[in-house]
Amino acid sequence: MSKLIYILNGPNLNLLGQREPEIYGYQTLDDLAETCTRLAGSSGFTVKCLQSNLEGQLIDWIHEARQEATGIIINPGAYSHTSIAIYDALKAFDGRIIEVHISNIHKRESFRHHSYVSLCADGVIMGLGLLGYELALESMDRLLD
Q: Taking the complete model, does pTM exceed 0.85, yes or no?
C-alpha cells in the first residue's frame, strides 16, 4: 500500500474563507488542498482531499480509505460532537488517524467540548487555524515511519 493519506473535511468546511473568517480565516478549501498536496509531495506521500456536508459520504470515504490509505486526517466539523457512525467507521480503519479542528473546540459552546472522533484518533490538533493541517501532515509522516 502506498503512503496515501485521506484528508476528510466535514460539513460547512466548503465555506472556508467565507464563513466566520474571524474563526476560520480567509483561506479557501482549495487553498488548503493545494498546501496539503504540496507538503505531502515534499514528504514523499500523496493526499486525497475530500469534503462533504453529508455524514454518509464521509463514512463511505472512510471505508474506501481502508483499502487505499495508510492514514486519515479528518476534520469532521460538527459531526465530531454527534456522529457515532463516523466513530464506528474510523474504528474499523487500521491506519493512523489524526483529528483536526481549525478552532479550539474547548473555547466554544459547551456542546462542542466532546468529540467522538477523539476516542479513536491517534492525535488531535485544534485551535491553530489551517496550520493544524500542516502539523497533522508532519505528524502523520512521523507516525508512518
A: yes
Q: How is residue 18 written as a grid cell? A: 467565507
Active site residues: 24, 101
Going from N- to C-terminal start, the domains of the chain cover 4-144
pLDDT tens for 72-113 read 999 999 999 999 999 999 999 999 999 999 988 877 767 666
The domain made up of 4-144 has a fold known as Rossmann fold (3.40.50)
Cβ-based neighbours of 16, under 8 Å, separated by 6 or more: 24, 25, 27, 28, 29, 31, 32, 130
Alpha-carbon distances, residue 3 vs 84, 99, 109, 116 (angstroms) = 27, 18, 37, 26
* Pairing relationship of beta strands 96-101 and 46-51 according to DSSP bridges: unpaired
How is residue 130 annotated by DSSP? Answer: T
Residues contacting 37, CB < 8 A, separation 6+: 46, 47, 49
The three-state secondary structure class of 136 is helix
Summarised one tens digit per residue, pLDDT across range 117-145 is 999 999 999 999 999 999 999 999 999 88
- Give Dmax over CA atoms of the chain in angstroms: 40
